[in-house]
Write a structure and sequence with these properties.
461 residues; globular; MFS_trans_sf; mainly alpha; 19 helices; Growth Hormone, Chain: A; MFS; single chain; Sugar_transporter_CS
């Protein structure tokens, strides 16, 4: 494979470093934007009973308050990355922040479940513009150290949001009003817009004359249909005509997308990017991490409550140390990366994650915090050490394709989690007991994560 990182920026590309005076505000934008978009993935779930009581809606309708956001967020990320490259990364970032903030206000003021679901769908659209544009800004704002710092801030802020989301959502729903779950985004969003306008330099792919409309349409069909199928498969069943149709649409659209991108004059995703060893390896390692970790976490709350006897509150708190460790350790990872190199740092992290998952797989009834907490902490530290994956992927492509690279990495991160849930779900449902299926699923997931370590050692050197 070739190393596209060695290539100069595309001719005609406009970009500029942020400068030392802008570095702090730029990282603050990255941190705040990463925080609010991740928070809205987790903050709502614990408030669903309150929403059901106050809005008088069925749980089936309220499920869309959660899945609607995920659906548009995942479905539009790749398109959002290319729009950032073509029309300007700061412009798309600010647009996404404005859309997200306005939709948050609409969600907080919603008087019905339908209005709330509509606002959440629009929120996801805004987030799909924010994330790839933000990663593209990080990619072109400076050299390797600046890129690593930006990715570290993004990961740390996301981990903090994962830890705080259920706590904040539960507190606001119980002690204030559910609307504040969404309204708290408004001042943060306004601040992000102001900082982005002041601190983020504009950059774009100067060689792109137009948006690849067929490619955008095909990518939206692939990701939206795939997200829908994987999200609702457990509820409707894998043999449901609706699920089979959704997955068929996703597969056919993926084939059409590959043809369109291969033959198009100005493809949204230049398939030549995958010749870059670090780009392809980083994406594969990210997918393997997501398949393993996210797939297991979905079922771990059931394991903690049903097998270990944890209360709902205790099972929710079980992963707070993990998320906090990611938030605390991630900013320190660039120092480890400079000593060990990206390949060994990521591989070490993935080995630690796999080892922690194996330890959890052997927990049995009667075990408690003393047995669980060390494994959870090891997984948290290991996950933090995977931070160089994002920097490697963003640094492996010409700057003109930074938005697309951010989109591909974001899609790998989100979609692998959905696939992981589906894979572990099949294992759990096919086992003689939940405990046996959970342990088998966990060991399978640990194997996938360990395979990611091998991929990292080979491709990120």
């Amino acid at each position: 494979m070739s190393d596209l990182a060695a290539r100069p920026a595309d001719p005609g590309e406009s970009a500029g470093p942020g400068g030392t005076g802008r570095r702090g505000p730029l990282l603050l934008v990255v941190g705040l934007a990463g925080f609010v978009t991740t928070l809205d993935n987790t903050v709502v779930t614990v408030a669903l009973p309150t929403l059901q009581a106050e809005l008088g809606a069925s749980l089936a309708v309220l499920e869309w308050v959660v899945t609607g956001y995920v659906l548009t967020f995942s479905g539009l990320m790749l398109a959002g990355g290319r729009l950032a490259d073509v029309y300007g990364r700061r412009r798309i970032l600010v647009t996404g922040l404005a859309v997200f903030t306005a939709a948050s206000l609409a969600a907080g003021l919603a008087g019905s479940a339908g209005a709330l679901v509509a606002a959440r769908l629009v929120q996801g659209c805004g987030a799909a513009l924010i994330l790839p544009a933000m990663l593209a800004v990080v990619a072109v704002a400076g050299g390797g150290r600046e890129r690593s710092a930006g990715v570290a801030v993004w990961m740390a802020s996301g981990a903090a949001a994962l830890a705080l989301g259920p706590v904040v959502g539960g507190y606001l729903a119980q002690h204030a009003h559910w609307s504040w779950i969404f309204l708290l985004n408004v001042p943060l969003g306004v601040l992000c817009v102001a900082l982005a306008m002041a601190a983020v330099p504009e950059s774009r792919d100067g060689t792109a004359a137009r948006v690849d409309v067929p490619g955008v349409a095909a990518s939206i069909a692939v990701l939206s249909a795939g997200t829908f199928g994987l999200t609702f498969a457990a509820e409707l069943g894998w043999t449901s005509p609706v699920i089979l149709a959704a997955l068929a649409v996703s597969v056919v659209s993926a084939a059409a997308f590959a043809v369109v991108e291969r033959l198009g004059r100005d493809p949204m995703v230049d398939l030549a990017l995958f010749r870059a060893r670090a780009f392809t390896g980083g994406v594969i390692a990210q997918v393997l991490w997501g398949l393993g970790v996210n797939g297991v976490f979905f079922f771990t709350a059931l394991f903690l409550q049903g097998v270990l006897g944890f209360s709902p509150t205790a099972s929710g708190l079980a992963f707070v140390p993990l998320a906090l460790l990611v938030a605390v350790v991630t900013p320190l990872v660039p120092f480890a990366e400079r000593r060990l190199g990206a390949a060994r740092t990521v591989a070490l992290g993935l080995v630690l994650v796999a080892g922690g998952m194996v330890a959890v797989a052997f927990l049995r009834a009667g075990d408690g915090w003393a047995e669980l907490l060390p494994a959870v902490c090891v997984i948290g530290i290991g996950s933090a050490l995977t931070m160089p994956l994002g920097s490697a992927v963003l640094g492996a492509v010409p700057e003109g394709r930074a938005g697309v690279a951010g989109g591909v990495f974001s899609v790998a991160r989100e979609m692998s989690g959905l696939f992981g849930i589906a894979v572990v779900g099949v294992i759990v449902n096919g086992a003689a007991s939940f405990t046996a299926g959970y342990s088998t699923g966990l060991l399978t997931a640990a194997g996938l994560v360990a395979a990611g370590a091998a991929v990292s050692l080979v491709t990120l050197r």
